Amino acid sequence: MSDHAITPDDILVGVLAQLTGASTGVAIGLLVSRPVIRRTGYSLITARDRQMINSKGCLRRVWGGRRPKPP
Q: Is residue 41 part of a domain?
């Protein structure tokens, strides 16, 4: 663990990185997968929710199950 303070800019960069990765994955998935969820809107919402669930699990592993201390 480092002593780096988390700033609002850091959070913004992280959110934008997650959205970029999610959008890319959804776009590729929509092009190459067979339609399990046939409606585009529902498939986008499902993919977005799945990405958010995955990112929360990654944060837990990075922080070792602990939330960072507030500054």
A: yes
